[in-house]
Amino acid sequence: MTAARIWRWWQTPILLAALLMVTAGVGGVGGVAISRVATLTLISVVFVAGLSIFSGNSGIMSFGHVAFMAIGAYTTAYLTIPTGLKAALFSDLPGSLRFLAEVQTGFIPAVIISGVAATVLGAVTAPVVARLTGLQSGIATLALLIVVFNVLNSWTDVTRGSSSMIGIPQHTTLPLVLAIAVLAVVVAWAHRTSRSGLQLQASREDYWAATASGIAVGRHRAIAWFLSSFLCGVAGSLYAGFLATFNVRSFFLTATFAFVVMVVIGGYLSLSGAVIGSLAVSVLQEGLRRLQDVQIAGAALPAGVADLILSAILLVVLVKAPYGLLGVRELRLPRRAGRAGTAAPAQTPAPEKAKLEV
Amino acid sequence: MDFQFVVAMLGLGALYALLTIGVALLFGILGLMNFAYGEVTMAAGFAMYFFRDQPWPVAVGMAILIAVVVAVLSEKLAFKPLRNADPVTLMIASFAVSLALQSLARMTVLPRTEGVPPNEFLSRRISLLGAEVSMLDLLTVALCGTAMLALAVLLNRTTLGIQLRAAAENFQMARILGVKANLVVPSAFVITGGLAAIGAAVLVWRQGAVSAEMGLQPMLIAVISAVVGGMSSLRGAALGGFLLGAATSILEALLPTGLIAFRDAFLFTAVIAVLVVRPSGLLSGAKVRVS
Amino acid sequence: MLLQVDNAFVQYGTSVMAVQGLSLHVGEGELVSLIGQNGAGKSTILKAIMGLVPLHSGTITFGGERVTPRTFSTINNRISYVPEDRGIFASLTVGENLKLGGTVRKDRKEFSKDLERELDRFPVLRKYWGKGASLLSGGEQQQLAIARALLLRPRLLLLDEPTLGLAPIMVDLIFDVIAQLRAEGMTILMVEQNAVRTLEVADRSYIVQAPGRVLGSGTAGELGSIGSVVDYLGFSPSEIE
């Protein structure tokens, strides 16, 4: 490979990584509050990179990926909460699961095992995703989310049900989450530019043409689903390891909606769009949260203003740019080195009709 | 199975069928899978709360009025600019509308869950065919059944109904023939508003409370049953809704106590299984058909 | 001139220019046909008149009014269109399909009379009035589509490939109906691939070649004297009359 070709492949992930480093840098020099926002933002980048592997390439919107995040978070809780506390928290574990109270791993192994645990669910559900298209697929992923939520919420002996999970050691640091977010972006990019990723994108543009050309659309969908479940599980693990406590309600429709907003505003068909969207929406959400806390004439703005503004912005974006800010474009440097250093989306025209499915 | 159980099952089935038809109608005409449907239900639920001291027909009437207003306003403000958008964009937009309406409700009229005291008349039980049947179950069957019958008459016997069905099958051809988008689209929203309100009334009676989040459950039920039913016809939607309602009742009756909490997990696993076996739904057709 | 198309360009997507500089005109009471192979851009020009595809450049005027998708109403100007797929509502009955033809008509009595006349013209539609339109054969669906289009009382009737894929007996029937409509004074612009039958019935024809260019136009006799048209068709149109 020539240097030019290597650069052509690497420039998008490098530019995105630079953006993530800026985010982490801001978090590093800012106060506790800023650092917290930066960390959560980077965790959502890991998630969104995972979601983008499936939705961005297949064009099928998934409402179920938060389930993988939940699996990751619960796995990490089990693997890292000190055994003493665990014995107290889960005194009613059924016999066959008693061993869970004894296991204990370091954080990094826990993160990896959490990703693997999520892929177990990913592997079980992959055949479903491979078979379904369009609206049906969207609804099946939604049903998956409901099933996982219902089990986590009701299996009180094992998951503490609707009570919060507590006592998870805080191991998620800004440098660690930055490193994992960069890795996630590279993995997502590698998949996107791989043979399987490209064939999946072909099926997104024209399902029947792709099928007729001998592309096993179902298999490529399943591969993407499997891979994305791992990253989303990792995101859940980082989330648990950062907040030290979480509730099953964090992994339901509100979170799903938040991630959908991120990828849609940025442009979910492109990896850059998804990543930039998650950065932009995180900043926006924080700004709105601060706005909501500002006292106006002695009275705080009512709760819900932030959500209202966020949904209004989403609607405007949908009307003005249905494929998000970036459409199908990826982050690249301008061809001519005129204004080198300023990252600008390449001027690839949007496809005349990017065929979208739910 | 005793008669009492059959009536309860029919009631839940009819309620779910009614809710599902509302979603399927909009999908047929606009390609809109409306997640904001839940908030239309919530608006109607609020009306039921606000007029809780009035006789129930008055409260239901006001619920219908308010739900229709909310449904039509959501069309005017959010969905009209997106009329030519693809189904995914529309669905995500409806997600936004749903969140916006929920936030609005929380900021203004429903900051917390409000109880709606059970109506004395509804909690009565009457003897029917040798079984004690609750008035609520009977009224559920009657109200939902009547609403669906009225909709069937509207769709099959009136000019507007023919236009709605034509628009649902092929909007472009309908417009070529002079069917006005600005008539059929708002009409469809009015109808869904009415259906949502009747569904909401029954839900409020059953749950005895209203909240800003109360629309979530009926919306999920409607959206999922519509897809399970096939999206191919309102009959498919009604069937999907009815089966989901009936399955819920049966699971509640059959599941051992320890597993009742996992009812939704069983139900939605079954939904996924149905989709895998019949990806285009139970009553699938080549075209999107209404009626 | 009722309909005038001048130097029309129509683009599909971003790259394909399906019609490149087509001009045609249709006078009041005329039966004009567009003849050409698949992909010649004939149907596209009908769609452009209906505002279903935007014009890239050029103009279309109808009754002196400029046709643009934004302001021009084909309904108010009573232009009826029978698309190639016939646009039958399969989930509606035959009768309901016909009633939709009168969607914008206010004159209920006159409409009933028109409906009776079309049911006399197409007896099969009366026979299947209450049946689902999906049960009709292709030829019967075409009759339904034409009858429905006529119920608008059109000033201009656009027919896109009315005999495509029909059994020979149905082809005869449809051409008979078209000849009948012409005799009644209906203004028709039709697209056809069946050159022989079309040249027989049409007042004037345009021979269209991909991408949407007119090779020659005129009556069958006039077309016969254009060498390139004779070459394209493989026979001389003047032999037909």
What labels describe this entry?
heterotrimer, A: 358 residues, mainly alpha, two-stranded antiparallel ribbon, disordered C terminus, C: 241 residues, alpha/beta, 6-stranded mixed beta sheet, 4-stranded antiparallel beta sheet, 9 helices, 10 strands, 34% helix
Word description of this protein:
The complex is a heterotrimer of chains A (358), B (291) and C (241). Chain A is mainly α. Chain A is 68% helix and 2% strand. Chain A has helices at residues 3-29, 32-58, 65-80, 83-89, 107-131, 134-154, 156-159, 174-193, 195-205, 207-212, 217-243, 253-266, 271-293, 305-320; strands spanning 295-296, 299-300, 331-332, 344-345. Mean pLDDT of chain A is 85; it is low at 337-358. In chain B, α1 (3-30) crosses α9, α5 crosses α6 and α9 (216-229) crosses α10. In chain C, 34% of the residues lie in helices and 26% in strands. In chain C, α2 (94-100) packs parallel to α5 (138-150). The model of chain C has no long low-confidence stretch (mean pLDDT 89). Chains A and B meet through α5, α6, α12 and α14 of A and α4, α9 and α11 of B.
